[in-house]
Task: inverse folding
């Protein structure tokens, strides 16, 4: 007879061990919920290792509160690069030089920075270490979610190692091609831009002074985000969005030619840029699930929504998902995962995410424009919005997610 494994009971099963899934596991474990987190791949926690996530994440102020509640902020803070100023540069003139620069300074809102930037591979390293210290969290890397059956009374999940789990709530944090979303019968709408983004880290002779700089010309924004010094040299993470064919060409350039290209595209703001890591490339899209919840299922992060990396919105929206879901769970733990709770989650998060998706979509399309008249119009709109103090502050608060 075939061996029958006894099902494991847990409050929450999280499918997906990226930054959002690991943070969710830490947060729910810290809140007293038994939590199993699975991911089909082993986490890559060293920068030089194959498959390391070369992107960086700027956690904005509201996200810090989520990380504090999860008990992991103090672990991360020593590796933070504060973001004091968000600088937008328009280089859409005839030559690739800065013709309009506008600074949004966090000091206009409070005595704290907008946020703090971290390399994604480092976030994974610290999150995995934090989970190991939490007795309520069982992190299982190398294990995929392969089956999901839900009833009003709970969910039954099958894992790739043959384990069966009975959970009160299943959280889909398993990315843009989410198995959980599909298994729950939740549809999704996708917009593809024909763009790809390159992500890598550089050093430079001119200090960044905690200024995050987004440079617009055509093809998409070129963003320099502060990192802590590397071997005593100022360092920044770069995300360069371009038309797909151009991004692929740039990704394969010899290092010397690539460094010349990023020097030109950066308008020389920080001096010559030296490539310090490999170049990662990934496709740009906007995507939103039709619903963020189903029977005993909640979607967070890229399982629920994907946007281009503009204005540090992506993972901060994901942590806002988590904050909302965690609050609902803590308010009524007896009814965790029931329809009333999950309907409330969808109602609170979906309209907010949709509004931000529309805004980021417009900003991305504006950043892609090729024609000179449209590039001139873009610069004019930026200048006009910035010149109105109340509008400038409203934009900054909206970017932080502050009402």
Result:
């Amino acid at each position: 007879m075939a061996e029958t494994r006894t099902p494991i009971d847990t409050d929450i099963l999280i499918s997906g061990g990226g930054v959002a899934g690991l943070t969710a596991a830490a947060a729910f474990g810290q809140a007293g919920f038994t939590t199993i987190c699975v991911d089909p791949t082993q986490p890559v926690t060293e920068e030089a290792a194959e498959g390391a996530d070369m992107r960086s994440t700027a956690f904005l102020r509201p996200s810090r509160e989520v990380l504090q509640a999860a008990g992991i902020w103090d672990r991360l803070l020593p590796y933070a690069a504060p973001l004091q100023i968000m600088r937008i540069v328009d280089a859409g003139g005839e030559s690739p030089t800065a013709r309009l620069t506008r600074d949004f300074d966090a000091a206009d809102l409070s005595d704290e920075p907008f946020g703090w930037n971290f390399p994604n591979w480092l976030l994974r390293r610290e999150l995995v270490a934090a989970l190991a210290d939490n007795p309520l969290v069982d992190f299982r890397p190398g294990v995929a979610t392969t089956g999901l059956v839900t009833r009003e009374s709970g969910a039954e999940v099958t894992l790739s190692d043959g384990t069966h789990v009975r959970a009160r709530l299943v959280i889909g944090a398993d990315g843009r091609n989410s198995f959980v979303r599909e298994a729950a019968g939740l549809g999704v709408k996708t917009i593809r831009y024909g763009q790809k983004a390159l992500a890598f880290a550089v050093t430079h002779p001119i200090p960044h002074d905690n200024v995050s700089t987004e440079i617009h010309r055509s093809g998409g924004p070129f963003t320099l985000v502060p990192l802590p010094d590397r071997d005593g040299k100022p360092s920044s993470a770069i995300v360069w969005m371009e038309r797909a064919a151009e991004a692929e060409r740039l990704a394969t350039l010899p290092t010397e030619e690539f460094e010349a290209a990023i020097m030109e595209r950066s308008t020389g703001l920080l001096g010559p840029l030296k490539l310090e890591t490999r170049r990662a490339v990934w496709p740009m899209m906007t995507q939103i699930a039709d619903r963020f919840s189903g029977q005993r299922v909640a979607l967070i992060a890229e399982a629920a929504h994907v946007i281009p990396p503009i204005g540090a919105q992506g993972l901060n929206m994901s942590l806002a998902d988590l904050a909302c879901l965690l609050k609902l769970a803590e308010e009524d733990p007896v009814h965790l995962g029931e329809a009333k709770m999950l309907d409330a989650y969808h109602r609170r998060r979906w309209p907010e995410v949709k509004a931000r998706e529309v805004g980021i979509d417009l900003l991305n399309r504006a950043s892609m424009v090729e024609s000179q008249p449209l590039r001139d119009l873009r610069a004019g709109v930026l200048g006009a919005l910035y010149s109105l103090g109340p509008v400038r502050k409203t934009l900054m608060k909206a970017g932080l997610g502050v009402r």
About this structure: The two ends are 60 Å apart (CA to CA).
